[in-house]
Amino acid sequence: MHLPHARKHVLDGPTIVTVEFPLIVSKPAKPLVDHFEIMDSAQLAARLQMPRRSLYNAIARGFVPAGRKIPGLGLRWRVDEIDAWLAQQFSKPNPLA
Length: 97
Description:
Elements: E1 5-12, E2 15-22, E3 38-39, H1 41-48, H2 52-60, E4 68-70, E5 74-78, H3 79-91
Antiparallel strand pairs: 1-2, 3-5, 4-5
């Protein structure tokens, strides 16, 4: 494995000497927790363009993914999971067509 080198000019008495040394580049540390956006039931209902009562009925019947109860926040959904679910719904053939 070839490491990039850096050069440093050092004064050695009356002459200047160039010294090369390996340049160590560390990778950024992976975060302990991935950051993601979450939404509440009002935001999800608006995104799905349905009333909140209809959203809760759809969740109870298994038509919409269930959210997660987060202490202090209540029921929440991950935006990326809802986006993936919506993409999957629209990739299926339309039964009404």
